[in-house]
């Protein structure tokens, strides 16, 4: 987010301002505007900005240079999210590891007291690519989403997946009289 002081001639005697990033024209704003938000930046990158007032094709000298480095990126969204094992009381999930993650967050479909949605359920550390959800009801459906996170933020969630626990089989002894 850039801000600057208005030209002494603004806005009556100028058409506007040109914002330059790394020496190239980035945007133009009208003479009554003294701020600009650059939303086209990349994570973890340094940018140098300057501003020039203009009227027609004539530009003023450039302002001082303001430099900023954007924060690093959150990790990519994990891929390959799937169920690999089920029992009557557990579901084991797996996914492909992503780079630069601090860990993974597992979300499970549930009711938060107001609405049904994916709620934070558990976390695992960096480079861990499986999670077993235990203590589940037998013959029940469970829905999950997953994200990766680091100090710069959290990735988008994966698409949801469904796991179904197996039924409990009871064997009753046969009593013969």
Brief sketch in words of this structure:
The protein is 0% helix and 47% strand. It contains no helices and 15 strands.
Structure description:
The protein has about 180 residues and is mostly beta strands. Helix content is about 0%, strand content about 45%. The protein contains no helices and 15 strands.
Distance between the termini: 87 Å
Counted by DSSP, the helix tally is: 0
Percent strand: over 45%
Order of helices and strands: EEEEEEEEEEEEEEE
β-strand number: 15
- Which consecutive residue ranges, at least 5 long each, have pLDDT under 50? none
Q: Sketch the major β-sheet.
A: 5 strands, antiparallel
**Form type:** rod-shaped
Q: What is the helix fraction of residues, given as a range?
A: under 10%
CA radius of gyration is 28 Å
Mean pLDDT: 94
Q: Helix- and strand-based class? A: mainly beta
Q: What features would you highlight for this structure?
A:
rod-shaped; single chain; 5-stranded antiparallel sheet; 177 residues; mainly beta
